[in-house]
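Many introductory courses stop at the sequence. We go one step further.
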Amino acid sequence: MPGTVNPADRRVLGGTKLQVSPVCIGTSPLASMPALYGYEVAEERAEATILAMLSSPFNFVDTSNNYGGGAAERRIGRALAAAGGLPPGFVLATKVDADPGTGDFSGERVRRSAAESLERLGVDQVPLMYLHDPEYHVTFAEAMAPGGPVRALIELRDQGVLGHLGIAGGPVGLMRDFIATGEFEVVLNHNRFTLIDRSAEPLMNDACARGVAFVNGAPYGGGILAKGPEVQPKYAYQRASDEVISAARAMQRACAAHGISLPAAALQFSLRDPRVTATVVGVSEPARIDQISALMSEPVPDDLWAELASLAVPPGSWLR
């Protein structure tokens, strides 16, 4: 259908030569973190969701060392073992994280984090590994210093523990600094390229110019653009401002007037931008896999995009 994206399409992930689906399945909800998401996910449901993903058109899955204290990776690992391993052509990405107790994000901690992830996942190597949320633990200079976390990741790549390096975080300026080093082939940024907020655009433009793949996380802003502001009044995991809630309500009304759902528009907003290689969509149950495909196929009238752009909050209210 013109204007929509096929779930079975494949895109080249920057300079990695990896072929990935336009949607990357996010597994943070599968770790069962009710304080963050407001609901629990049983282990059986989480593993069933991963198995459903393995038989879906999507071949790109994202997780992290610290999701639920390692619960997401353990659940993925059990599902992969039940399926006989990761099918050929699937791209599994995880992230190294700071020590959850001490906040240590040294080179040695990166090596331990990577080893923990591989053990939980039941694999010897992952195609893509990100440095995750450095903004909370180290300065840019500390991250890039000899013996620091980035150098440790480079060494792990050279040892064959990981295929490619990525950087994942929030602040746009910091992410631009990291990709300017030339050490990263993929950048994952979240909550900053949505119907509400467009603050990631300078980073997206830099990534395109440098041949770095841009992966867009949280296209629903943490849920407000999926469930609506009455059900999920948070944006970027915090209580949304009145301005954001008003914008989301107005967008919900505009979509309804055109006969399309707000989550379909929010997802396709990301998918239709040529600067976005893949969009991370978190899932919490097997049915969500087919729902994503359905949202991708809803036809969005061209004139709705301009209307939605006019309803976004002003740049002064965007995240940075």
